[in-house]
Design goal:
Number of strands: 10
CATH topology of the largest domain: hpI Integrase, Chain A
Low-confidence stretches: none
CATH class of the largest domain: Mainly Alpha
Shape: elongated
Structural class: alpha+beta
Helix content: 40-55%
Largest sheet: 5 strands, mixed
Radius of gyration: 25 Å
Order of helices and strands: EHEEEEHHHHHHHHHEEEHEEHHHHHH
């Protein structure tokens, strides 16, 4: 899209239809403001003097680099092209002298991860396991062997899972820098995780196990009605444990029977509305009564109950306390989604219930042209599952 860029336009510019969009300046030809969900960056599109192919060079992020500064950089880059020099090489040499891996990771934590649910854990891993090892390496010189150095010590100590998480953190940071325009290429793209391929769990509770677990909770977790309700809500709503434990009163509209999760509290960073069945509302009402004046539905020590605390209690009780074989809280989410699938709920609706954008925004048709929110279909699915769940718990449903 071509437009005469102004400071006002740049400040308010958004990706067209939620998809990454380039707005080309009519004042300086080739200059583009790239926008995407979460950021903006400058680039100049030009014809490379070496091979005559179309190319692109990053000029910085917005608003750190203003419109006037971006036009100045673009004109300087066009001058290099006229002098038969590649501006990518020139700017890469400049950035390599200024940006270290520590600087990149720090910017990633401050600008991208701030406020996200996993921010503190990611920060701890990068500060503890990466920055002391390769923080001084210039980003322009970053190589796969450097990332391997950062994870090798963990692998040597037998902490493959931790090494895999550290690798994923670094990879995400580098991809963010490329998308933002700070880097023109990803030096570690295609690199395999040091933790190997982790096999996804497949555990889905049978009907008789659901009934046994539900009725065992008052005894197994008699010390905490809150933990009981959290686990029940994971099964009733199909949402993630961390999203349930951190439930805030402000997120709830019990008149409309909706739970509105902000992007800061979801795994993928996108807002998510969960229709609440009568069964879910009843559980939440009881929790709110016990919560008193706390802003959290499941308060604990001045804040919200943590998913880690609930997971640890479940793990410690998996020696027979619940009356079924080993399970995890995430298995309840999988059981709910599978249960809805068995009731005939379409995969696209299941994706919206689970907030899986790999399903709901897959491909051009769903990602660009489909803007239906499936609110009614989500409610029907969750109501149908609540009815089925009620029958299983009461024993009137067929045990599968």
């Amino acid at each position: 899209m071509r437009i005469k860029l102004t400071d006002r336009f740049c400040d308010s510019a958004k990706p067209d239809g939620g998809v990454r969009t380039d707005y080309f300046d009519t004042v300086v030809s080739g200059l583009a403001l790239r926008t995407w969900q979460g950021g903006k960056s400058w680039s100049l599109h030009f014809t490379a003097p070496r091979d005559g192919k179309r190319a692109r060079v990053s000029l910085g992020s917005y608003p750190a680099t203003s419109l006037a500064a971006a036009r100045g950089k673009a004109l300087a880059a066009k001058g290099l092209v006229e002098a038969h020099q590649d501006p990518r090489e020139f700017f890469a040499a400049q950035s390599s002298a200024a940006m270290s891996t520590a600087g990149l990771l720090t910017a990633y934590l401050e600008m991208h991860m701030r406020g996200r649910r996993s921010a503190e854990k990611v920060r701890q891993r990068l500060v503890r396991d990466v920055i002391p090892v390769i923080g001084a390496v210039k980003v322009a010189d970053l190589h796969r062997r450097d990332v391997t150095r950062a994870t090798a010590a963990l692998v040597k100590r037998g902490k493959q899972a931790q090494a895999a998480r550290v690798f994923e953190d670094v990879r995400a940071a580098v991809r963010w820098a490329v998308k933002r325009g700070d880097l023109d290429r990803n030096p570690i793209e295609g690199m395999a995780s040091p933790g190997g391929v982790k096999k996804a769990r497949e555990r889905v509770l049978r009907d008789d196990e659901i009934r046994t677990l539900w009725h065992s909770l008052p005894t197994a977790l008699g010390f905490s009605p809150a933990y009981q309700r959290i686990l029940k809500l994971c099964l009733v709503t199909g949402q993630r444990l961390g999203e349930v434990t951190g439930m805030d009163r402000a997120e709830l509209d019990l008149v409309a029977q909706e739970w509105k999760l902000p992007g800061s509290r979801t795994k993928n960073g996108h807002p998510h509305t969960v229709p609440l069945s009568g069964l879910a509302v009843g559980i939440i009402d009881d929790a709110l009564t016990d919560a008193g004046n706390s802003p959290f539905v499941f308060p604990n020590s001045g804040g919200a109950t943590t998913s880690l605390a609930v997971s640890r209690i479940v793990a410690s009780g998996n020696r027979g306390r619940f009356g079924i074989s080993h399970w995890t809280p995430h298995d309840l989410r999988r059981t709910a989604i599978t249960g809805m699938a068995k009731l005939g709920v379409a995969p696209i609706v299941l994706g919206h219930v689970a907030n899986h954008r790999t399903t709901t925004k897959a491909g051009i048709t769903l990602g660009i042209y489909t803007h239906h929110d499936y609110a009614a279909e989500k409610r029907q699915a969750l109501e149908a599952w609540a009815n089925r769940l009620g029958a299983i718990i009461s024993g009137s449903g067929h045990a599968g």
